[in-house]
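re: ur question from earlier - yeah i can do the single chain one, its not a big deal. heres the input i used so u can compare w yours
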Amino acid sequence: PNGTIKLDGLRDAIVFDKVSFSYDRASGPALRDVSIRFAAGQTTALVGASGAGKSTLVDLIPRFYDISQGSIQIDGIDLRSLDIADWRARIGFVSQDPFLFSTTIRDNIAFGCPGATTSDAEAAAERANASEFIARLPEGLDTPIGDRGVMLSGGQRQRIAMARAILRDPQLLILDEATSALDAVSEKLFQQALARLSQDRTVLVIAHRLSTIVDADRVVVLSNGSVTEQGTHQDLLDRKGDYWQFHTLQDVSASALEEARA
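and the output i got, formated as tokens:
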């Protein structure tokens, strides 16, 4: 059911208050009694093992699903009271596997913004660090990219998706494992684009590689659908809890990989 309230803007916070959620009764709860405050204008990273509930949590914010218990409040207003279309218009969502259409780069960037001009698309591509590779393509912005962007690399597809989000100029940007499949060079370019886009914006980042979130204002650690830790990157390392274990394991894996390459 749709709500009726339209926000002036996201000004304070998105608050999860004792939220629980189940996809169905047989599977049990995917989230259990989750309480988190996502402050407006800050970048919050969500960390945890596969199946911890990270993607489920962010899918509740645009109301892809409704919660089973508790409440989600946007600037103190229950999420279910908001006009869905108006609320979703304020959100940019970049997933691990962004959907691109079998048309041109220009059309893919402008999807969701029918009135966008060529200059708008070019500016969004520039901010997403996509303009350099687009300029090398046979027809630039008018180059067809094939079904689901098959003509582009993974890093190029992600930067097109980021340009699409930039063009919408969302108040809330959600990145769901958006860099997990990228190589080191593509990840660096993507991170540079994210740093520019994050200014004066609320950002939620689901991160597999912890190196990508060291500058986040806050890190939230999930395990089996519950919040186990919250704090800054350095605070959580100092506690030597779940986050420290994730960080240590990734350092060991990276060192082993470098030795194998040598």
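The first helix runs from residue 54 to 60. not sure if urs matches, ping me
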